Inverse folding.
Protein backbone atom coordinates (compact mmCIF):
# COMPACT_ATOMS: atom_id res chain seq x y z
CA UNK A 1 0.00 0.00 0.00
CA UNK A 2 1.28 3.48 -0.86
CA UNK A 3 0.99 5.68 2.23
CA UNK A 4 -0.03 9.35 2.17
CA UNK A 5 2.28 12.03 3.54
CA UNK A 6 0.99 12.07 7.13
CA UNK A 7 0.92 8.28 7.30
CA UNK A 8 4.53 8.15 6.16
CA UNK A 9 5.71 11.00 8.31
CA UNK A 10 3.80 10.72 11.57
CA UNK A 11 4.27 7.00 12.16
CA UNK A 12 7.92 7.64 12.98
CA UNK A 13 9.49 5.70 15.83
CA UNK A 14 13.18 5.65 16.79
CA UNK A 15 14.66 8.23 14.45
CA UNK A 16 18.39 7.80 14.67
CA UNK A 17 19.13 7.50 10.96
CA UNK A 18 20.44 10.97 10.27
CA UNK A 19 21.17 12.69 7.03
CA UNK A 20 24.17 14.96 6.73
CA UNK A 21 22.39 18.32 6.69
CA UNK A 22 24.29 20.28 9.32
CA UNK A 23 27.73 20.86 10.71
CA UNK A 24 29.43 20.57 14.08
CA UNK A 25 27.17 18.50 16.34
CA UNK A 26 25.12 17.24 13.35
CA UNK A 27 28.05 15.77 11.46
CA UNK A 28 28.09 12.51 13.44
CA UNK A 29 27.34 9.26 11.70
CA UNK A 30 24.64 6.90 13.11
CA UNK A 31 26.08 4.28 15.42
CA UNK A 32 23.75 1.53 14.26
CA UNK A 33 20.28 0.20 14.82
CA UNK A 34 18.68 0.64 18.20
CA UNK A 35 15.28 0.21 19.76
CA UNK A 36 13.07 2.96 21.03
CA UNK A 37 13.18 1.36 24.48
CA UNK A 38 16.96 1.71 24.67
CA UNK A 39 17.25 4.96 22.73
CA UNK A 40 17.35 7.19 25.79
CA UNK A 41 19.44 4.92 27.95
CA UNK A 42 22.55 5.89 26.04
CA UNK A 43 23.60 9.56 25.87
CA UNK A 44 25.06 9.26 22.37
CA UNK A 45 21.87 7.72 20.97
CA UNK A 46 19.72 10.23 22.85
CA UNK A 47 21.65 13.17 21.39
CA UNK A 48 21.40 11.66 17.91
CA UNK A 49 17.63 11.36 18.30
CA UNK A 50 17.52 15.11 18.93
CA UNK A 51 19.98 15.77 16.12
CA UNK A 52 17.43 14.14 13.82
CA UNK A 53 15.00 16.96 14.66
CA UNK A 54 17.58 19.60 13.75
CA UNK A 55 18.24 17.65 10.58
CA UNK A 56 14.61 17.85 9.43
CA UNK A 57 14.62 21.61 10.08
CA UNK A 58 17.48 21.95 7.59
CA UNK A 59 15.74 20.26 4.67
CA UNK A 60 15.01 22.34 1.61
CA UNK A 61 14.22 19.45 -0.73
CA UNK A 62 13.28 15.77 -0.51
CA UNK A 63 12.85 13.43 1.26
CA UNK A 64 12.75 10.31 -0.83
CA UNK A 65 14.19 7.69 1.54
CA UNK A 66 11.65 5.02 0.59
CA UNK A 67 8.69 7.07 1.89
CA UNK A 68 7.25 7.25 -1.61
CA UNK A 69 7.09 10.19 -3.98
CA UNK A 70 9.86 12.77 -4.04
CA UNK A 71 8.67 16.15 -2.83
CA UNK A 72 10.06 19.38 -4.21
CA UNK A 73 11.87 22.44 -2.94
CA UNK A 74 10.63 24.74 -0.20
CA UNK A 75 12.37 27.77 1.34
CA UNK A 76 11.02 30.31 3.78
CA UNK A 77 11.73 33.18 1.34
CA UNK A 78 9.04 31.70 -0.91
CA UNK A 79 6.55 32.90 1.71
CA UNK A 80 8.24 35.64 3.74
CA UNK A 81 9.78 37.54 0.81
CA UNK A 82 8.05 36.62 -2.45
CA UNK A 83 4.51 36.91 -1.08
CA UNK A 84 5.39 40.46 -0.05
CA UNK A 85 6.28 43.70 -1.82
CA UNK A 86 9.97 43.05 -1.08
CA UNK A 87 10.54 40.52 -3.86
CA UNK A 88 9.45 39.07 -7.18
CA UNK A 89 9.83 35.43 -8.20
CA UNK A 90 12.86 35.99 -10.41
CA UNK A 91 14.67 33.58 -12.74
CA UNK A 92 13.18 33.04 -16.21
CA UNK A 93 9.43 33.56 -16.66
CA UNK A 94 8.70 29.86 -17.09
CA UNK A 95 10.94 28.61 -14.27
CA UNK A 96 9.07 27.54 -11.12
CA UNK A 97 5.77 29.09 -12.15
CA UNK A 98 4.28 27.71 -8.95
CA UNK A 99 5.93 30.63 -7.15
CA UNK A 100 4.19 33.14 -9.42
CA UNK A 101 0.92 31.36 -8.75
CA UNK A 102 1.46 31.75 -5.01
CA UNK A 103 2.38 35.41 -5.26
CA UNK A 104 -0.68 36.15 -7.37
CA UNK A 105 -2.95 34.03 -5.18
CA UNK A 106 -3.62 31.69 -8.10
CA UNK A 107 -2.23 28.67 -6.30
CA UNK A 108 -4.18 25.42 -6.04
CA UNK A 109 -4.23 22.45 -3.70
CA UNK A 110 -1.98 20.59 -6.16
CA UNK A 111 0.88 23.13 -5.81
CA UNK A 112 3.95 21.06 -4.84
CA UNK A 113 5.48 23.76 -2.62
CA UNK A 114 2.87 23.51 0.11
CA UNK A 115 2.95 19.71 0.62
CA UNK A 116 6.73 19.90 0.90
CA UNK A 117 6.42 22.38 3.77
CA UNK A 118 3.68 20.21 5.28
CA UNK A 119 5.71 17.00 5.06
CA UNK A 120 8.96 18.52 6.32
CA UNK A 121 7.20 20.16 9.26
CA UNK A 122 5.39 17.01 10.31
CA UNK A 123 8.59 15.02 9.99
CA UNK A 124 10.16 17.40 12.51
CA UNK A 125 7.08 17.17 14.73
CA UNK A 126 7.13 13.36 14.61
CA UNK A 127 10.80 13.28 15.53
CA UNK A 128 10.27 15.78 18.33
CA UNK A 129 7.45 13.66 19.73
CA UNK A 130 9.73 10.63 19.84
CA UNK A 131 12.04 12.55 22.16
CA UNK A 132 9.39 14.34 24.22
CA UNK A 133 7.45 11.13 24.91
CA UNK A 134 10.40 8.91 25.75
CA UNK A 135 13.32 10.88 27.12
CA UNK A 136 11.93 11.13 30.67
CA UNK A 137 11.94 7.34 30.93
CA UNK A 138 15.58 7.06 29.94
CA UNK A 139 18.51 6.55 32.28
CA UNK A 140 20.77 9.28 30.93
CA UNK A 141 22.00 12.20 33.04
CA UNK A 142 19.12 14.33 34.31
CA UNK A 143 20.64 17.61 33.13
CA UNK A 144 21.18 16.26 29.62
CA UNK A 145 17.69 14.75 29.68
CA UNK A 146 16.11 18.11 30.47
CA UNK A 147 18.11 19.93 27.81
CA UNK A 148 17.23 17.40 25.10
CA UNK A 149 13.55 17.60 25.97
CA UNK A 150 13.76 21.40 25.80
CA UNK A 151 15.33 21.21 22.34
CA UNK A 152 12.57 18.88 21.13
CA UNK A 153 9.84 21.11 22.56
CA UNK A 154 11.35 24.14 20.83
CA UNK A 155 11.33 22.42 17.45
CA UNK A 156 7.80 21.09 17.83
CA UNK A 157 6.69 24.67 18.44
CA UNK A 158 8.93 25.99 15.64
CA UNK A 159 7.32 23.65 13.12
CA UNK A 160 3.78 24.34 14.27
CA UNK A 161 4.40 28.10 14.12
CA UNK A 162 5.48 27.74 10.51
CA UNK A 163 2.40 25.63 9.72
CA UNK A 164 -0.18 27.83 11.45
CA UNK A 165 0.95 30.99 9.64
CA UNK A 166 0.73 29.31 6.24
CA UNK A 167 -2.25 26.96 6.67
CA UNK A 168 -4.12 28.17 9.75
CA UNK A 169 -5.18 25.65 12.38
CA UNK A 170 -3.66 22.22 11.77
CA UNK A 171 -3.81 18.74 13.36
CA UNK A 172 -1.98 18.81 16.69
CA UNK A 173 -0.05 15.71 17.70
CA UNK A 174 1.59 15.11 21.04
CA UNK A 175 2.31 11.46 20.27
CA UNK A 176 3.10 9.28 17.26
CA UNK A 177 0.16 8.83 14.90
CA UNK A 178 -0.45 5.61 13.01
CA UNK A 179 -2.39 5.16 9.75
CA UNK A 180 -5.12 3.43 11.76
CA UNK A 181 -5.72 6.72 13.57
CA UNK A 182 -6.74 8.45 10.33
CA UNK A 183 -10.41 8.67 11.24
CA UNK A 184 -9.56 10.61 14.40
CA UNK A 185 -7.27 13.22 12.82
CA UNK A 186 -8.92 16.64 12.84
CA UNK A 187 -7.76 20.18 12.31
CA UNK A 188 -7.49 22.32 15.42
CA UNK A 189 -8.43 25.98 15.39
CA UNK A 190 -5.84 28.69 14.88
CA UNK A 191 -6.39 29.74 18.50
CA UNK A 192 -5.78 26.23 19.82
CA UNK A 193 -2.72 25.83 17.61
CA UNK A 194 -1.21 28.99 19.06
CA UNK A 195 -2.00 27.83 22.59
CA UNK A 196 -0.14 24.59 21.83
CA UNK A 197 2.85 26.49 20.45
CA UNK A 198 3.01 28.80 23.44
CA UNK A 199 2.85 25.88 25.87
CA UNK A 200 5.80 24.18 24.15
CA UNK A 201 7.93 27.33 23.97
CA UNK A 202 7.35 28.15 27.64
CA UNK A 203 8.31 24.60 28.60
CA UNK A 204 11.36 24.76 26.33
CA UNK A 205 12.52 28.05 27.86
CA UNK A 206 12.30 26.51 31.35
CA UNK A 207 14.50 23.57 30.32
CA UNK A 208 17.04 25.03 27.93
CA UNK A 209 20.39 26.53 28.96
CA UNK A 210 21.59 29.98 28.02
CA UNK A 211 23.84 30.33 24.99
CA UNK A 212 27.07 30.57 26.98
CA UNK A 213 26.31 27.36 28.90
CA UNK A 214 26.89 25.17 25.83
CA UNK A 215 30.22 23.54 25.16
CA UNK A 216 32.08 24.57 22.00
CA UNK A 217 31.08 21.31 20.30
CA UNK A 218 27.41 22.21 20.84
CA UNK A 219 27.47 25.72 19.42
CA UNK A 220 24.34 26.27 17.34
CA UNK A 221 21.91 24.36 19.53
CA UNK A 222 18.74 26.15 20.58
CA UNK A 223 18.86 28.13 23.79
CA UNK A 224 16.65 29.68 26.43
CA UNK A 225 17.05 32.96 24.55
CA UNK A 226 15.85 31.40 21.29
CA UNK A 227 12.74 29.98 22.99
CA UNK A 228 11.87 33.32 24.59
CA UNK A 229 12.57 35.27 21.39
CA UNK A 230 10.37 32.96 19.35
CA UNK A 231 7.63 33.17 21.95
CA UNK A 232 7.77 36.96 21.60
CA UNK A 233 7.54 36.61 17.81
CA UNK A 234 4.58 34.22 18.14
CA UNK A 235 2.68 36.55 20.47
CA UNK A 236 3.45 39.57 18.29
CA UNK A 237 1.90 37.68 15.37
CA UNK A 238 -1.12 36.70 17.45
CA UNK A 239 -1.66 40.33 18.44
CA UNK A 240 -2.33 41.19 14.81
CA UNK A 241 -4.17 38.04 13.77
CA UNK A 242 -5.98 35.55 16.03
CA UNK A 243 -5.56 36.80 19.59
CA UNK A 244 -7.88 34.43 21.42
CA UNK A 245 -5.42 34.39 24.33
CA UNK A 246 -5.97 38.14 24.83
CA UNK A 247 -2.30 38.95 24.79
CA UNK A 248 -1.09 42.50 25.22
CA UNK A 249 2.09 44.22 24.07
CA UNK A 250 3.33 43.93 27.64
CA UNK A 251 3.86 40.21 26.96
CA UNK A 252 6.15 40.99 24.02
CA UNK A 253 7.91 43.69 26.02
CA UNK A 254 8.58 41.35 28.95
CA UNK A 255 9.85 38.46 26.82
CA UNK A 256 12.21 40.60 24.76
CA UNK A 257 13.42 42.28 27.96
CA UNK A 258 14.28 38.83 29.32
CA UNK A 259 16.38 38.05 26.23
CA UNK A 260 18.14 41.42 26.34
CA UNK A 261 18.84 41.32 30.08
CA UNK A 262 20.38 37.84 29.78
CA UNK A 263 23.52 39.52 28.35
CA UNK A 264 23.95 36.58 25.98
CA UNK A 265 23.63 38.62 22.79
CA UNK A 266 24.86 41.82 21.20
CA UNK A 267 24.84 43.42 17.77
CA UNK A 268 27.53 42.25 15.37
CA UNK A 269 29.78 45.33 15.08
CA UNK A 270 29.79 45.28 11.28
CA UNK A 271 26.42 44.87 9.56
CA UNK A 272 28.20 43.76 6.37
CA UNK A 273 29.55 40.66 8.14
CA UNK A 274 26.29 39.32 9.58
CA UNK A 275 25.55 36.85 6.78
CA UNK A 276 29.14 35.83 6.18
CA UNK A 277 30.85 32.75 7.57
CA UNK A 278 32.90 34.88 9.96
CA UNK A 279 29.71 35.79 11.88
CA UNK A 280 28.08 32.37 11.99
CA UNK A 281 26.83 31.67 15.53
CA UNK A 282 28.25 35.04 16.53
CA UNK A 283 27.05 37.45 19.22
CA UNK A 284 23.98 38.49 17.21
CA UNK A 285 22.86 34.95 16.48
CA UNK A 286 19.81 33.95 18.54
CA UNK A 287 18.95 31.02 16.27
CA UNK A 288 20.29 29.87 12.92
CA UNK A 289 20.12 26.66 10.90
CA UNK A 290 23.53 25.00 10.65
CA UNK A 291 25.03 23.75 7.38
CA UNK A 292 28.29 22.25 6.16
CA UNK A 293 29.77 21.36 2.77
CA UNK A 294 31.12 18.09 1.47
CA UNK A 295 32.08 16.52 -1.84
CA UNK A 296 28.51 15.37 -2.45
CA UNK A 297 26.61 16.74 -5.42
CA UNK A 298 23.01 17.86 -5.55
CA UNK A 299 20.15 15.69 -4.40
CA UNK A 300 17.54 15.28 -1.70
CA UNK A 301 18.83 15.60 1.87
CA UNK A 302 22.48 16.08 1.03
CA UNK A 303 25.06 17.99 3.02
CA UNK A 304 24.54 21.74 2.85
CA UNK A 305 21.70 23.83 1.51
CA UNK A 306 20.49 25.03 -1.87
CA UNK A 307 18.79 28.01 -0.19
CA UNK A 308 21.31 30.51 -1.54
CA UNK A 309 22.04 28.59 -4.74
CA UNK A 310 18.41 29.21 -5.71
CA UNK A 311 18.81 32.94 -5.04
CA UNK A 312 22.21 33.46 -6.65
CA UNK A 313 22.84 35.00 -10.06
CA UNK A 314 22.29 32.61 -12.97
CA UNK A 315 25.38 34.15 -14.60
CA UNK A 316 27.61 33.10 -11.70
CA UNK A 317 26.31 30.17 -9.67
CA UNK A 318 22.60 29.96 -9.10
CA UNK A 319 19.05 30.03 -10.41
CA UNK A 320 18.23 33.70 -9.88
CA UNK A 321 15.10 33.49 -7.71
CA UNK A 322 13.78 35.94 -5.08
CA UNK A 323 14.67 39.23 -6.74
CA UNK A 324 14.46 42.28 -4.43
CA UNK A 325 12.10 44.96 -5.72
CA UNK A 326 12.60 48.61 -6.60
CA UNK A 327 10.04 49.34 -3.89
CA UNK A 328 12.38 47.82 -1.30
CA UNK A 329 15.41 49.58 -2.80
CA UNK A 330 13.65 52.92 -2.47
CA UNK A 331 12.78 52.24 1.18
CA UNK A 332 16.41 52.72 2.22
CA UNK A 333 17.46 56.18 3.32
CA UNK A 334 20.19 57.97 1.33
CA UNK A 335 23.65 56.46 1.85
CA UNK A 336 22.38 53.71 4.20
CA UNK A 337 25.20 51.12 4.01
CA UNK A 338 22.66 48.33 4.43
CA UNK A 339 21.35 48.90 0.92
CA UNK A 340 24.63 47.85 -0.71
CA UNK A 341 24.82 44.86 1.66
CA UNK A 342 21.31 43.82 0.55
CA UNK A 343 21.33 44.42 -3.22
CA UNK A 344 23.34 43.31 -6.25
CA UNK A 345 22.61 45.22 -9.46
CA UNK A 346 24.08 44.93 -12.95
CA UNK A 347 27.88 45.34 -13.03
CA UNK A 348 28.21 45.19 -9.24
CA UNK A 349 31.10 43.20 -7.82
CA UNK A 350 30.09 40.75 -5.10
CA UNK A 351 32.63 38.55 -3.29
CA UNK A 352 35.18 39.72 -5.83
CA UNK A 353 33.12 38.56 -8.83
CA UNK A 354 31.57 40.83 -11.50
CA UNK A 355 27.82 40.28 -11.73
CA UNK A 356 25.83 40.68 -14.90
CA UNK A 357 22.11 40.98 -14.22
CA UNK A 358 20.23 39.83 -17.30
CA UNK A 359 16.62 41.05 -17.36
CA UNK A 360 15.59 38.04 -19.45
CA UNK A 361 16.18 35.96 -16.32
CA UNK A 362 15.47 38.54 -13.62
CA UNK A 363 12.25 40.37 -12.67
CA UNK A 364 13.59 43.54 -11.07
CA UNK A 365 17.22 44.12 -12.01
CA UNK A 366 18.35 43.14 -8.51
CA UNK A 367 19.61 40.09 -6.63
CA UNK A 368 20.09 39.55 -2.90
CA UNK A 369 23.69 40.07 -1.80
CA UNK A 370 22.99 38.58 1.64
CA UNK A 371 23.02 35.09 0.14
CA UNK A 372 25.82 35.59 -2.37
CA UNK A 373 28.21 32.65 -2.61
CA UNK A 374 31.18 31.74 -4.79
CA UNK A 375 30.74 28.87 -7.22
CA UNK A 376 32.38 25.72 -5.82
CA UNK A 377 34.69 23.49 -7.90
CA UNK A 378 31.74 21.17 -8.51
CA UNK A 379 27.99 21.71 -8.39
CA UNK A 380 27.05 21.17 -4.78
CA UNK A 381 25.07 22.80 -2.01
CA UNK A 382 26.30 25.65 0.17
CA UNK A 383 27.50 25.59 3.76
CA UNK A 384 26.18 29.07 4.58
CA UNK A 385 24.03 29.00 7.72
CA UNK A 386 20.54 30.51 7.53
CA UNK A 387 19.88 33.19 10.16
CA UNK A 388 16.41 32.73 11.60
CA UNK A 389 16.45 35.07 14.61
CA UNK A 390 18.89 37.95 15.10
CA UNK A 391 19.39 40.11 18.15
CA UNK A 392 18.53 43.17 16.05
CA UNK A 393 15.08 41.66 15.56
CA UNK A 394 14.72 41.25 19.34
CA UNK A 395 15.63 44.93 19.84
CA UNK A 396 13.10 46.01 17.23
CA UNK A 397 10.38 43.75 18.66
CA UNK A 398 10.92 45.37 22.06
CA UNK A 399 10.93 48.81 20.43
CA UNK A 400 7.56 48.11 18.82
CA UNK A 401 6.16 46.81 22.11
CA UNK A 402 7.50 49.87 23.93
CA UNK A 403 5.92 52.19 21.36
CA UNK A 404 2.58 50.41 21.74
CA UNK A 405 2.85 50.81 25.53
CA UNK A 406 3.57 54.57 25.24
CA UNK A 407 7.20 54.11 26.27
CA UNK A 408 8.31 56.23 23.33
CA UNK A 409 11.67 57.25 24.74
CA UNK A 410 12.68 53.65 25.34
CA UNK A 411 11.53 52.61 21.87
CA UNK A 412 13.63 55.37 20.28
CA UNK A 413 16.77 54.31 22.17
CA UNK A 414 16.34 50.72 20.96
CA UNK A 415 15.84 51.71 17.32
CA UNK A 416 18.81 54.06 17.46
CA UNK A 417 21.04 51.17 18.57
CA UNK A 418 20.20 49.42 15.32
CA UNK A 419 20.69 52.58 13.25
CA UNK A 420 24.01 53.37 14.93
CA UNK A 421 25.36 49.94 14.04
CA UNK A 422 24.16 50.29 10.44
CA UNK A 423 25.79 53.69 10.07
CA UNK A 424 29.16 52.20 11.08
CA UNK A 425 29.02 49.35 8.57
CA UNK A 426 31.69 48.78 5.95
CA UNK A 427 30.93 47.82 2.39
CA UNK A 428 30.05 44.15 1.93
CA UNK A 429 33.01 41.82 1.33
CA UNK A 430 34.55 41.77 -2.13
CA UNK A 431 33.26 44.91 -3.84
CA UNK A 432 36.51 45.08 -5.85
CA UNK A 433 37.34 42.48 -8.52
CA UNK A 434 39.33 39.62 -7.10
CA UNK A 435 39.09 40.94 -3.55
CA UNK A 436 37.34 39.59 -0.48
CA UNK A 437 38.05 42.57 1.78
CA UNK A 438 35.57 44.73 3.67
CA UNK A 439 36.36 48.15 2.24
CA UNK A 440 35.27 51.33 4.06
CA UNK A 441 31.81 52.59 3.16
CA UNK A 442 32.87 56.21 3.65
CA UNK A 443 29.36 56.96 4.84
CA UNK A 444 28.72 60.73 4.81
CA UNK A 445 28.12 62.55 8.07
CA UNK A 446 24.44 62.88 8.87
CA UNK A 447 23.50 59.49 7.38
CA UNK A 448 20.84 57.61 9.33
CA UNK A 449 20.29 60.34 11.90
CA UNK A 450 18.95 59.21 15.28
CA UNK A 451 15.18 59.14 15.58
CA UNK A 452 13.86 62.36 17.01
CA UNK A 453 13.37 62.31 20.77
CA UNK A 454 9.85 63.69 20.33
CA UNK A 455 8.61 60.95 18.03
CA UNK A 456 5.55 59.05 19.29
CA UNK A 457 2.28 57.42 18.29
CA UNK A 458 1.74 56.25 14.73
CA UNK A 459 4.75 58.20 13.46
CA UNK A 460 6.99 56.20 15.80
CA UNK A 461 5.40 52.90 14.79
CA UNK A 462 5.89 53.79 11.14
CA UNK A 463 9.57 54.51 11.84
CA UNK A 464 9.96 51.16 13.60
CA UNK A 465 8.27 49.30 10.74
CA UNK A 466 10.59 51.09 8.32
CA UNK A 467 13.60 50.05 10.39
CA UNK A 468 12.44 46.43 10.45
CA UNK A 469 12.04 46.44 6.69
CA UNK A 470 15.52 47.72 5.87
CA UNK A 471 17.39 46.02 8.71
CA UNK A 472 15.82 42.60 8.05
CA UNK A 473 15.41 42.93 4.28
CA UNK A 474 15.40 39.67 2.35
CA UNK A 475 15.41 37.70 5.61
CA UNK A 476 11.91 36.19 5.12
CA UNK A 477 10.06 38.45 7.58
CA UNK A 478 8.38 41.12 5.45
CA UNK A 479 5.20 39.20 4.54
CA UNK A 480 4.56 38.21 8.15
CA UNK A 481 5.12 41.80 9.31
CA UNK A 482 2.64 43.09 6.74
CA UNK A 483 0.03 40.52 7.75
CA UNK A 484 0.27 41.08 11.50
CA UNK A 485 0.12 44.88 11.13
CA UNK A 486 -2.88 44.77 8.79
CA UNK A 487 -1.02 46.28 5.84
CA UNK A 488 -0.72 43.27 3.54
CA UNK A 489 -3.93 43.54 1.52
CA UNK A 490 -3.20 47.18 0.65
CA UNK A 491 0.05 46.13 -1.06
CA UNK A 492 -1.70 43.82 -3.54
CA UNK A 493 -2.55 44.88 -7.11
CA UNK A 494 -6.17 45.65 -7.92
CA UNK A 495 -5.79 45.94 -11.69
CA UNK A 496 -9.03 44.74 -13.37
CA UNK A 497 -7.00 42.33 -15.53
CA UNK A 498 -5.10 40.91 -12.53
CA UNK A 499 -6.95 41.69 -9.33
CA UNK A 500 -4.65 39.90 -6.90
CA UNK A 501 -6.32 41.48 -3.89
CA UNK A 502 -9.73 40.17 -4.88
CA UNK A 503 -8.37 36.63 -5.29
CA UNK A 504 -6.52 36.87 -2.00
CA UNK A 505 -9.70 37.89 -0.20
CA UNK A 506 -11.35 34.62 -1.26
CA UNK A 507 -8.76 32.77 0.86
CA UNK A 508 -9.03 34.80 4.06
CA UNK A 509 -9.49 32.78 7.25
CA UNK A 510 -13.01 32.60 8.63
CA UNK A 511 -11.72 32.45 12.21
CA UNK A 512 -12.16 35.68 14.19
CA UNK A 513 -9.07 37.79 13.58
CA UNK A 514 -7.76 41.25 14.42
CA UNK A 515 -6.75 41.72 10.77
CA UNK A 516 -7.95 39.68 7.78
CA UNK A 517 -5.26 37.38 6.43
CA UNK A 518 -5.14 34.68 3.74
CA UNK A 519 -4.20 31.01 3.98
CA UNK A 520 -2.62 28.68 1.46
CA UNK A 521 -4.22 25.33 0.58
CA UNK A 522 -3.59 22.02 2.27
CA UNK A 523 -2.51 19.43 -0.29
CA UNK A 524 -5.52 17.75 -1.88
CA UNK A 525 -4.42 14.20 -1.12
CA UNK A 526 -4.16 14.90 2.60
CA UNK A 527 -7.50 16.68 2.66
CA UNK A 528 -9.20 13.71 1.05
CA UNK A 529 -7.34 10.91 2.84
CA UNK A 530 -7.51 12.36 6.33
CA UNK A 531 -10.84 14.12 5.95
CA UNK A 532 -9.35 17.53 6.74
CA UNK A 533 -11.33 20.71 6.13
CA UNK A 534 -9.78 22.63 3.24
CA UNK A 535 -9.00 26.33 3.56
CA UNK A 536 -11.39 28.91 2.06
CA UNK A 537 -11.53 29.24 -1.71
CA UNK A 538 -9.66 26.06 -2.66
Amino acid sequence: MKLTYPARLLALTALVVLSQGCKNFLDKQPLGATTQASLFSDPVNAVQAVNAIYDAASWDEGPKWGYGDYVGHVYEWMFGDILSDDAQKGSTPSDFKLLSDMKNWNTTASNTIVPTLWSHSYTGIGRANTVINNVDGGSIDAVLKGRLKGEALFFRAYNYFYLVRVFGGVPLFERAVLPTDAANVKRSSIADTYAFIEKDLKAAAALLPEKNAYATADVGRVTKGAANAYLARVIMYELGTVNAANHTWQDVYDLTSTVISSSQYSLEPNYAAIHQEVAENGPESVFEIQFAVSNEGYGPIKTGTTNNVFQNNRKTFGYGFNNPTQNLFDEFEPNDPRRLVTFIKDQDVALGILNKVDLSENDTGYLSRKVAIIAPPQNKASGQNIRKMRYADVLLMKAEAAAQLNKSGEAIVLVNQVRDRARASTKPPGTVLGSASYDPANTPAGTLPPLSAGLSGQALLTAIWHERRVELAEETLRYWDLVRTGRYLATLPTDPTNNVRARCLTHVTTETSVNPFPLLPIELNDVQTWGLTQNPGY
Notes: Strands lie at 87-90, 285-289, 321-324, 343-345, 349-350, 353-354, 366-368, 386-390. Residues 157 and 197 are 5 Å apart (CA to CA).
